Structure formats: structure tokens, C-alpha cells
Amino acid sequence: MSGSVDGLRAGLETLDALPADRAEEQLxxxxxxxxxxxxxxxxxxxxxxxxxxTASDRAIEALGPDDLAEALAAHPRIGQRVAGSSPEAAWSRxxxxxxxxxxxxxxxxxxxxxxxxxxxxxxxxLIRAAGRSPxxxxxxxxxxxxxxxxxxxxxxAEQLRQITRLRLERSLRS
Length: 174
What we know:
This protein is mostly helical. It contains nine helices and no strands.
């Protein structure tokens, strides 16, 4: 564990020392909302990883509807294979790796659910896929289709917060 903590600390020191444009690039791979990136770059240096993650949580909470839409635009549909070699594409493939175990019925239900969700909320369905089975993601998709727009905005922000935290930690290990 201490090697992992030391690796995160070293990654944080590197992030803190980067020129602003390089820090923006690294952070944008974690969350595509420019307002979040700007706030995170301005908050450097961070005393430790906990302070970085807390700052990230607060920056996510401060995002308005347009900022959330900007962040969502960088996320693929659940079950959609992402091409490319960027860090965010690789992370997305890793986060959705559980989809490889999905049977045809679950895949079809997720496709249909994604379309229904996009029709209802006019945005991609966002969920922290890491650590969830395809069946769990489908159940969450179906549940969230019953949300009113404000409840769904809060759920989207929470899922974005969780995804961004995971990606921040990965970026510090890179």
C-alpha cells in the first residue's frame, strides 16, 4: 500500500509542477468540463491527494448544466467500444471492461435503454462502470429513467464525481 501511496504522491508532485497548459491537458483527460479543469489548475499546488480529491469534488459540485453537458460529451454510451489511444479512451475501455461478459440480451437492453434515456434527458447515460456488472448498469439505467430532471442532474453529477476521482488517481499513477 505504501508503494501505491508513494506513487500517488509522486504523481501529485509532478502534476503540481507542470506548466499550466500541460496540467490542463492531464486534467482534461479526467473530466472534460473546462470549468472543472480551470478550477483544478488554479487550485495547485495541492498539499496531498486527499486535498486534490476534495477540490475535485467541490469543482464537480460547482458545475452548471452547460458544464455537465460538456463533461458528458466526452463519455461514450455504456456498451459502446471506444476507439483511440488517448488516456481517456483507454480508461473508458478499462472502466467498461465488464461489458465483455454481457450476453446478447443485456447488450440489446442497454442499447434500447440508452436510446430511451437520451430521448428523455437529451444526454448520454453516465454511470461509473468500473466495478459494476452489465446487469447492475442496466438495472441502474432502468431505475434512473424514472427520475425527474433535477434528480437525474444530481445523479449525473455524482457519477461524474466518482468517475473523475478514479481517473485522477489513475492519472497520478501514469
